[in-house]
TrEMBL record:
Signal peptide: none annotated. Keywords: Cell membrane, Membrane, Transmembrane, Transmembrane helix. It comes from Komarekiella delphini-convector SJRDD-AB1. Belongs to the MscS (TC 1.A.23) family. It is a multi-pass membrane protein. It is found in: Cell membrane. GO terms for biological process: transmembrane transport. Its main location: membrane. This is Mechanosensitive ion channel. The keyword Kinase does not apply. The chain crosses the membrane at residues 6-26, 141-167, 193-215, 227-244, 250-271, 292-313, 319-338. It holds the Pfam family MS_channel_2nd. Gene3D superfamilies: 1.10.287.1260, 2.30.30.60, 3.30.70.100. Residues 337-403 form the Mechanosensitive ion channel MscS domain.
Length: 553
């Protein structure tokens, strides 16, 4: 499994590096094309045949527009088209149905080829393109194209489903099962998110390719799709931002942003390799490892960004104005974010709080899971992750149970009755501390006699533990053991007692004459009622006895 993970990390790094290099090559190609001689394309039904340059007073756009108009009329004609070459002023001239199409100049000819050879090549391309255009306007071709569309759509649907199956297969191979298990509640891993994103991208490219293929089957849709594509390409490649002496288009900016995310991915991958392959085998603490990893991560990002801008050809000094604007933005709108970032760096290098420390921040108690630039992740005892801003760790009091020492003291109050021998309770509590495996032997446990209470003797058991995160569990286990040994030793825990002393034989209460008269009448009525009920019961008993005697006779 470790070899597989190493192979996976190597493949990810290789893919990112290849994407970065491709981005640089694409940018260079776009820059070269932007700096080359202006040309325009001669097309037939949206198919590019060749490019022409300016000639004398005619620009490349004018020459291409005139040629495209003549070819459009020729391809729509049902008659055969005659394409030939004639010589005029020692230059080859291409005629289409005896109409002047183009004059081949030296600027149109690449190095190592004559004007006549270039003219013959263009004539052959024009002839083939016109014949193909006339063929595509016949009814037989239309029905063949419809059949190809149906087959291509069904093939795309099948490939769409196949891609989903392949991606699910590799997702199960590359992502641990815990991340896919619905009962564990684990969040998807980065590799799974990457696979999902690539699946969406590949499926989108598939349907874009099918759409381009379908529109390329018919002359009118092909021409309009090429026009739309040219408009989009022009809008993406036209300069929109000028920094110093360099101008940048939308596609340049998109590629630069993509390469920057590539730098972030490479920095993150290298940092993870450093954390898992190098720092893990050292004997330094987890907090030191995390500090080194964070410093390495941001250093790689800074170095990679500077190198990327230099390769891009961007003058760093020209960013002074942008940096000043960014500083003003931080001062007004981003001061909260800047405060969190600075706090994160202070915490990282000061190391007052490190990953793995058991801390108490206000109402939150838990273990520090991660230290980010802006926030800190704390996993509470309820296994809930709390995201705390870094500035709060510097502005408020933080109890760090692991700072400089992992030993922490627990205090357990114990109250017993007055009749208990204090030496007996002391020995019992120390025995409990010695028998618990989570209690440290050094420092030794202590029992303090705190004093006399109203109805109890007050003791405290002091123990030291090395796992502050388990302090509540350890405390509960100790109390269970204390209760068991107190029952064994017949040591009683006193109940709260209250004494009431009366100074005279009567309560100091006075009743009004009217209330006394009412109470005496009520008591007399109750007595009379009880007497009548008793007489009635006696009479019924005598009658029943007489009836029983009569029956016996």
């Amino acid at each position: 499994m470790n070899s597989f993970l190493r192979f996976r990390n190597a493949v990810v790094i290789l893919i990112i590096v290849v994407l970065v290099l491709l981005g640089c090559l694409i940018t260079t190609e776009i820059s070269v094309q932007a700096q080359s001689t202006p040309t325009d394309a001669v097309t037939v039904d949206g198919r590019k045949l060749f490019e022409v340059t300016e000639a004398g007073q005619f620009s490349a756009e004018n020459r291409a527009a005139d040629a495209n108009l003549i070819l459009r009329e020729a391809v729509r004609s049902p008659d055969s088209v005659k394409v030939e070459i004639v010589e005029s002023n020692q230059l080859p001239v291409i005629l289409v149905n005896n109409r002047h199409l183009l004059t081949v100049t030296q600027q149109d000819t690449p190095t190592g080829r004559t004007k006549d050879e270039q003219a013959k090549i263009w004539v052959q391309r024009i002839t083939e393109a016109v014949q193909q255009g006339q063929e595509e306007r016949r009814l037989s071709y239309f029905w063949r194209a419809i059949l190809l569309i149906v087959l291509s759509v069904f093939g795309a649907i099948a490939l769409h489903l196949l891609l989903g199956w392949v991606w699910r297969y590799w997702s199960r191979r590359l992502v641990p099962r815990e991340a896919n298990h619905p009962e564990t509640g684990a969040q998807p891993k980065g590799i799974e998110l990457f696979l999902q994103l690539t699946l969406v991208v590949v499926r989108s490219l598939l349907w874009i390719g099918i759409t381009i293929y379908i529109t390329d089957l018919f002359p009118f849709t092909r021409e309009w799709s090429r026009r739309i594509a040219n408009i989009l390409l022009m809008s993406l490649t036209s300069p929109v931002i000028t920094i110093g002496e360099s101008s940048y288009s939308v596609i340049n900016i998109i590629i630069l942003i993509s390469l920057f995310f590539g730098v972030l991915a490479i920095a993150g991958t290298l940092t993870n390799l450093l954390r898992s392959r190098v720092l893990r085998i050292t004997n330094v603490s987890r907090g030191v490892q995390e500090s080194i990893a964070v410093a390495t991560h941001y250093s790689l990002i800074f170095i990679g960004t500077v190198l990327l801008l230099q390769i891009w050809g961007l003058d760093i000094s020209s960013l002074a104005i942008l940096a000043s604007v960014f500083g003003v933005a931080i001062g007004f709108g981003l001061q909260g974010v800047a405060k969190e970032l600075v706090s994160g760096f202070v915490i990282t290098f000061e190391r007052a709080i490190a990953v793995g420390d058991f801390v108490e921040i206000g109402e939150f108690i838990g273990t520090v899971e991660r230290l980010n630039a802006r926030s800190t992740y704390i996993r509470t005892l309820d296994d809930i992750v709390v995201i705390v801003p870094n500035s709060r760790l510097l502005d408020t009091e933080v109890v760090n149970w692991n700072h400089q020492s992992s030993a922490s003291r627990l205090v357990l109050p114990v109250r017993v009755a007055y009749e208990v021998n204090i030496n007996t309770i002391r020995s019992a509590l120390l025995k409990v501390a010695r028998e618990n495996h989570d209690v440290l032997k050094k420092p030794t446990p202590l029992v303090w006699f705190q004093g006399y209470g109203e109805d109890f003797l007050n003791f405290q058991l002091l123990v030291w533990i090395s796992k502050p995160r388990k302090q509540f569990q350890i405390k509960s286990d100790l109390y269970f053991q204390i209760d068991e040994i107190l029952r064994q030793e017949n040591i009683h825990i006193p109940f709260p007692q209250r004494s009431l002393n009366l100074r005279s034989g009567s309560l100091p209460l006075e009743l009004s004459p009217k209330l006394e008269n009412s109470l005496s009448q009520l008591s007399e009525s109750m007595i009379a009622l009880l007497k009548s009920q008793l007489q009635k019961d006696n009479s019924n008993g005598a009658n029943n006895q007489a009836a029983k005697t009569q029956d016996e006779k």
